[in-house]
Amino acid sequence: GSRGRAPTVGVLPPPARGGQPRGLAMAVRVRSQSPTRVLWENRRLAQKCINKMVQNGLHVFHPEWAAYHSGTFTECELKVFGGTETITLPVQTCTKVRDVKNVVAYRAQVDPDNLIFVMKQGCSWIVQSDHSEVGRKVQVRGLKSFTPSKMSWPHPFAMVGTGYHGLKNAMVHLHDGNTNFVMFDR
After folding, report:
1. Could you tell me the residue ranges of all domains in the chain?
2. Which of 175, 174, 169 is closest to 184 using CA atoms?
3. Check: CATH 3.10.20.90 for 36-141?
4. For 78-124, what is each residue's pLDDT tens digit?
């Protein structure tokens, strides 16, 4: 017994045979974070999400609107329908489909009215309307890629002259994958 003795503070028990002091694991304790640190860390993460949303052009609802809209931050994973390309956007729970459509349309240089957001709910697929809250995993129809595609003209363009610069220009177009041109020479 340790009955009747004053507790010793900061003194480790004598080392065991292996040279490691007994009870070392108990002497080194990991402190939990204080509530203030947790609060400021959450505020920092929220500000990071707000900055990312603003960079993408999404509207951010401020905390004073919390009575009307849920301002919880989350992520929305968008996938091209029938493809493998995905992007992840930070959103709030109250972010509407129309807002995310505008961001995707701006990035891909397409008309937002041509985009259809499809979400799996249960065993079926649901087309999301523009005024509903955006889902967490959404497939986007009406896109081939999230990057802007090259303009395809309905008619070929003409290059007059097949000298050095004309042939060089044609080779540059072929190297870029554009075969929609015609060359003329006398």
Report:
1. 36-141, 150-186
2. 169
3. yes
4. 999 999 999 999 888 888 999 999 999 999 999 999 999 999 999 99
